Predict the structure.
Amino acid sequence: MVVQKRHCFLSFILGCAIITGCSDEAPSCSDDETQGLVIQISKDELKKQVGQGVVDLVTLELTGIRTTDFNEKTGAQECAAELVFSGKNGKDSIDITYKSELVDNEDQFYVTVYGL
């Protein structure tokens, strides 16, 4: 995973080597692989902020997933969702955005998460 710091938010990029065939489009915002990567990136960031003990006590899920933009030239999908944290003390959530895009000349895609 490559971590990039941006002015007011963190951006996390995680490549995934599993993608179907030679598609001209990155996996959709609601694709299981895309969601899984968003959750994993979110858990990794939560672990950095509050520790593994807290990560072990909460369940993360994406709700209200929507595609906010699609780039026909690159096949990239821009997405928005609510990241819900559930634990024994109830639920909390934050709004996040993320992007699913293909890697040039490879059967991989990147997921970039903003707003963590």
Notes: Residues 1-21 have pLDDT under 50 and may be disordered. The helical segments are 32-50, 52-57. The first helix runs from residue 32 to 50.
